[in-house]
Design brief:
The chain is α+β, with helices and mostly antiparallel strands and about 55 residues long. About 30% of the residues lie in helices and about 10% in strands. The protein has a two-stranded antiparallel ribbon with strand order 1-2.
């Protein structure tokens, strides 16, 4: 099944977090959805789940 937010840029806009925050979460393995990075550097998000219980400070 294809994600509603295939590119992390679309996902961050829908979630209301910054790209930088999502990038740090991805690097640290704490991104709240499954994502993978292509050889080109593009990060694809595999789930449109919304964030719960997270605060961006």
């Amino acid at each position: 099944m294809l994600s509603d937010y295939p590119w992390i840029g679309a996902w961050v806009k829908a979630q209301g977090v910054t790209y930088r925050t999502a990038w740090e979460w991805f690097k640290n393995g704490t991104l709240p959805v499954f994502a993978r990075q292509l050889a080109t550097g593009t990060i694809l998000v595999d789930g449109p789940e919304t964030l719960t219980g997270r605060a961006v400070i």
